[in-house]
Task: structure prediction
Amino acid sequence: MKTRTETRETKATAEAIWARWVDAEKWPEQNADLEWARALGPVAVGTRIVMKPKGSGETSATITEVTPLRTFRTETKLPLARLSIEHEMSTLPSGGTRFTHRWTMSGPLSGLFWKLFGERASSALPAMLDNIVRIAEHP
Result:
């Protein structure tokens, strides 16, 4: 199993961060590696999200968990592997928000898929979270 986790704290509200997470069409604004993304339904368990990474083919993920203003999780099934992307948030005592993105690749071929794309794609997490902070603090 391979995992990469990034966390940020911001003065932005949980609602502002949540809005960035659940609006797939806005993901390319915060993730420079995406050409486009769109949800094929409401933000709910079972909804598929289709996206096109730059320099790659179209891919999709399925929403597996949603707790508004708390957690949002997607999974992508690969041959003998699974990519789980978890988003978690909490309100800080100061009124701001702490939020985390976690990429986890599991399964017998997780090491191979991590080398093929997971390592490079997850390395974009720091910049992506910084972009979320910038956009959420200055809409």
Helices lie at 14-22, 27-30, 110-122, 125-137. The beta strands are 2-10, 34-39, 48-53, 59-67, 71-78, 81-91, 97-106.
